[in-house]
Design goal:
Number of helices: 10
Number of strands: 6
Strand content: 5-15%
Distance between the termini: 8 Å
Keywords: Hydrolase
GO molecular function: phosphoglycolate phosphatase activity
Structural class: alpha/beta
Radius of gyration: 17 Å
Protein name: HAD family hydrolase
Order of helices and strands: EHHHHHHEHEHEHEHE
Largest sheet: 6 strands, parallel
GO cellular component, one term: cytosol
Organism: Peptoniphilus harei
């Protein structure tokens, strides 16, 4: 019996928008970096020449610290200082560009149904806590969320630290949990949990199909697995 559903955020609950690319471009505008190095940096973090984002790339599925580690190779700044700058910049950019916070489906209706079935709802994201919390508050969805697992609180996915904390807090077994996401790290996170891939993010059906046969268009389709 399923008792909890853990959702990835960007590309799963929220559209993976051009805002994330724009935020990186804006961040680098304040730095001294030539166009050649900038092009290499973009490629390394997963920004394509057409402005799109590669599936399973650093930008699509890794953390602010992972971005900082790449940036530190191109910028003459301390890693920790770059990390703090990126973390603050991404949050401020989100607040100044709320139009980029867009749901992939009617999340309020979905969450209301899940709560009526007494299903626990968690967000397991590669973003930091402040960005995840702000996004849910902006959409008036924070009250539905039982657990936030963010990259600045726990070891990043696919490390199971956050999952083990969640399981212990609510006395759950892996087999009672569904993990929903659009990337490889989501699909290999939690060995014995049920995996459901969504096509509303950066992950392709071909890629997701390597890890699960449970593939849906967006999170609203999760109800058929309950």
């Amino acid at each position: 019996m399923i008792k909890a559903i853990l959702f990835d955020k960007d590309g799963t609950l929220l559209e993976y928008t051009e805002g994330w690319v724009d935020s990186i471009v804006e961040f680098l505008e304040e730095k001294t970096i030539d166009e050649g190095k900038k092009k290499k940096l973009f490629k390394e973090i997963g920004i394509r020449e057409d402005g799109g984002v590669e599936e399973n790339s650093i930008l699509s599925s890794e953390t602010a610290m992972d971005l900082a580690m790449i940036f530190s190779k191109y910028l003459d700044e301390d890693l920790r200082e770059i990390y703090k700058e990126i973390d603050d910049h991404l949050l401020n950019y989100l607040k100044e560009n709320n139009n980029f916070i867009r749901e992939t489906c009617d999340l309020k209706s979905l969450f209301e149904i899940l709560k009526s079935k007494e299903i626990l709802i968690g967000i397991f994201t590669s973003d930091n806590y402040r960005q995840a919390k702000y996004s849910m508050e902006y959409l008036n969805l924070d009250s539905f969320i039982d657990f936030y697992a963010a990259a600045d609180i726990y070891e990043k996915k696919p490390n199971n630290e956050s999952l083990e904390v969640f399981k212990e807090k609510y006395t759950l077994k892996d087999q009672e949990i569904i993990i929903v996401g659009d990337s490889r790290v989501d699909m290999v996170f939690g060995k014995d949990t049920m995996k459901v891939g969504v096509l509303c993010g950066t992950g392709s059906r071909e890629m997701l199909g390597k890890y699960t046969e449970n593939i849906i268009d967006n999170p609203s389709g999760i109800l058929k697995f309950l």
